[in-house]
Specification:
A alpha+beta, B alpha+beta, C alpha+beta, A: 3 helices, C: alpha+beta, Rieske Iron-sulfur Protein, 4-stranded antiparallel β-sheet, binds FE2/S2 (inorganic) cluster, binds fe (ii) ion, Ring_hydroxy_dOase_asu_C_dom (chain C)
């Protein structure tokens, strides 16, 4: 990681993270999917995941699988999200860690409160993004969600966390 | 984990104990220095001691694992010391 | 505090041949009876030997709500110990896994071998010479058995052997391990732990239910490259089979034999996995390897908690009448690295809390649990396929792919266990 001034400003980072969370919370699937680059990775490790190529993850989606996940949500027959969970994401402790060839690396803590018939579920952890600027737009090429309870039994997690 | 070498300690731990193991070159021959990370207690194991350990039958090793054998031998005194 | 047990007559009334009463999923007294008469009596799957490959390795597993340490001692023998200090009951292992030559309780330092024997306690003057050290080891699961590396435990001191318990399920496990060129599976690709607010039987019954996939999984069948949809359609040549002893199978072989294409069951072709296919031919010969690769992997629910689901292994853990954890790991085959990468990749899309398949199954378990509390009607109907059920060449009851032959088989065994008509 180099120490040159980030080409994506802190304000832009914050705006992106808030917008990404809002699009997910509101179930605006196409707009959310459009935030990803073509080489994207969306990763939610489990407590056992050391190397995602050796141990199973809760989510390990390359770009095509992100598309599949969104397409499944949009069928209207994804029962675990039909009806959609009501979710409120709260992002805080945002830090811009630096920049390298891959993009601008950020980390933040989050809480996501999910409501559905099952009841209220609290999800929390740390979220890491790698952001890049493409044609005047900021996109994410990598999002890693490290749940505080990744090593514990988890309820169904079918919304976009 | 770091490889073994002079002063390059390797931490060996499980949920019950934690020690740092260093190859110590200060003597005329190499030996292992083992530090209990919880108490700082240090012990040295030369080649002959290690060879002996490797030859120690399981039953005797199990005897050594009895916590009252050498460590928690006497109940704490009024000052709270356990050794 | 335990609820009063129900008498045998009650279970004969609540479990009929073609319908079962909703309270069986919701009554805490029934759950307590199930723990004592099923989970703490019959053979229950605990873990796989490949999870503790080295002497000193241990993993923390379970039998229902009981926490079980599966350890390999320094001589290589496997033990099933209760994760409870024999002194004053502290939990011994907090980590999910580790390697150690002994277990030292964090509360007062009592120390045990990985075989459970008490090695000693601090300050022995506090115990008179009459303290029977040899009787103060860790609790053990009284009987342990292993088949193809799958380790089972039974809290019953006597009863049918593991092989007798597995019965016809053995052959399905054999069909699983032969998918490895070395004849061994390895459960080394980590676990997801998925908790659902549903009774454990909702899960067991769903595992070999061929009726639901078209409805519950239509979203992924519609958008995914799904070779699975066909298997569960009315055109399927698959068979729902009651193997006896509560074990049930969704036998897909006839379907894939009809397709007659190696690896069709895995949604791929031989040219995508050349190393694996070569290793299989070298291990079994071209003809046998082709047969294995055409027939594919079994889909079998080994009662009460081991679900071999073609490319992943599920373990069902009941915690309360309406709380169950489903543990899942991708199948890994010894001697097949290229296959293992694809197995891991496919499993991580399908299963667990966010899985394309399992998130919807679990949504159904939870809705089902909310549904069955209704007072009217009180019964769940298990009649599907009664009109076309047959006895197959092996003497097992068999039905069409979407028939409830499997659910009826599961309930027949549960009734026999709850009324204590069969030995453990
Ligand atoms: S409870 Fe384990 S040593 Fe006291
Ligand atoms: Fe399903």
């Amino acid at each position: 990681m180099t120490t040159t001034a980030p080409t994506i400003s802190r304000t832009e980072v914050e705006e992106f993270l808030y917008r990404e969370a809002r699009l997910a919370d509101e179930g605006r699937y196409d707009e959310w999917e459009a935030l990803w680059t073509d080489d994207a990775l969306y990763w939610v490790p489990s407590g056992d995941t050391v190397d995602p190529h050796k141990q199973i993850s809760v989510i390990y989606d390359h770009r095509s699988r992100i598309a599949l996940r969104v397409a499944q949500l949009k069928t209207g027959k994804r029962h675990a999200q039909d009806p959609r969970s009501n979710v409120a994401h709260l992002l805080s402790n945002i830090e811009v860690l630096g920049e390298d060839g891959a993009g601008t690396h950020t980390t933040a803590t989050f809480i996501a409160i999910e409501s559905r018939s099952r009841g209220l579920t609290t999800w929390a952890g740390r979220v890491e993004h790698t952001l890049v600027r493409r044609d005047e737009r900021i996109l994410m090429s990598r999002k890693v969600v490290r749940l505080v309870n990744a090593d514990q039994p988890l309820p169904t997690l079918a919304f976009l966390i | 984990m770091c490889g073994l070498g002079e002063e390059a300690g390797a931490v060996i731990e499980n949920e019950f104990a934690s020690v740092t193991v260093v190859i110590d070159e200060r003597g005329h021959d190499r030996r292992l220095r083992v530090v209990d990370n919880h108490t700082g207690r240090t012990a040295y194991f030369d080649a002959l001691l290690l060879e002996t350990l490797a030859w120690t039958p399981e039953a005797e090793l199990r005897g050594l694992l009895d916590p009252a054998r050498h460590r928690w031998t006497v109940d704490p005194g009024p000052d709270g010391t356990t050794r | 505090m335990t609820a009063p047990a129900l008498d045998r007559e009650a279970y004969r009334r609540l479990i009929e041949d073609d319908r079962v009463h909703g309270s069986l999923y919701t009554d805490p007294a029934v759950f307590d009876d199930e723990l004592t008469r099923i989970w703490y009596r019959t053979w229950v799957y605990v873990g796989h030997e490949s999870e503790i490959p080295q002497p000193g390795d241990y993993v923390v597993k379970s039998i229902g709500p009981q926490s079980i340490i599966m350890s390999r001692d320094r001589q290589g023998a496997v033990h099933l110990l209760l994760n409870r200090c024999s002194h004053r009951g502290n939990q011994i292992c907090e980590a999910a896994r580790g390697n150690t030559g002994a277990l030292r309780c964090h509360y007062h330092g009592w120390t045990f071998g990985t075989d459970g024997a008490l090695l000693g306690y601090p300050f022995r003057q506090g115990y008179g010479p009459d303290t029977p050290k040899s009787a103060l080891g860790l609790g053990r699961v009284p009987r342990m058995g292993s088949y193809q590396g799958f380790v089972f435990g039974s809290f019953a001191h006597a009863g049918p052997s593991l092989l007798e318990h597995l019965g016809a399920a053995r052959e399905a496990i054999d069909r699983l391990v032969r998918l490895s060129p070395l004849g061994r599976v390895e459960l080394t690709a980590g676990w997801l732990h998925h908790e659902v607010r549903a009774n454990w039987k909702m899960l067991v019954e769903n595992e070999t239910d061929g009726y639901h996939p078209q409805f519950v999984h239509s979203s992924i069948f519609e958008v995914g490259e799904s070779h699975v949809a066909e298997v569960y359609s009315e055109r399927s040549a698959a068979t729902a089979r009651d193997l006896g002893g509560g074990h049930t199978e969704h036998d897909l072989r006839a379907h894939f034999r009809r397709m007659d294409r190696p690896l069709a069951w895995f949604g791929t072709t031989e040219d995508r996995l050349p190393d694996y296919c070569r290793a299989m031919r070298e291990a079994y010969g071209a003809e046998k390897a082709r047969e294995i690769l055409v027939e594919g992997s079994p889909h079998i629910m080994v009662f009460p908690n081991l679900f071999i689901a073609e490319i992943q292994i599920f373990v069902i853990q009941p915690l309360a009448v309406d709380r169950t954890v489903q543990h899942v790991t991708p199948l890994q085959l010894a001697g097949a690295p290229d296959m293992n990468r694809r197995l891991l990749h496919q499993a991580s899309g399908s299963v667990g809390p966010a899985g394309f398949l399992l998130a919807d199954d679990s949504e159904m378990y939870e809705r089902n649990q909310r549904g069955v509390v209704a007072r009217e009607p009180e019964w769940l109907i298990l009649r599907r396929g009664l009109n076309r059920e047959r006895v197959d060449a092996d003497g097992h009851l068999a039905g069409a792919a979407t028939d409830e032959t499997t659910q009826r088989g599961i309930w027949r065994h549960i009734r026999a266990m709850l009324t204590e008509e069969v030995p453990a």
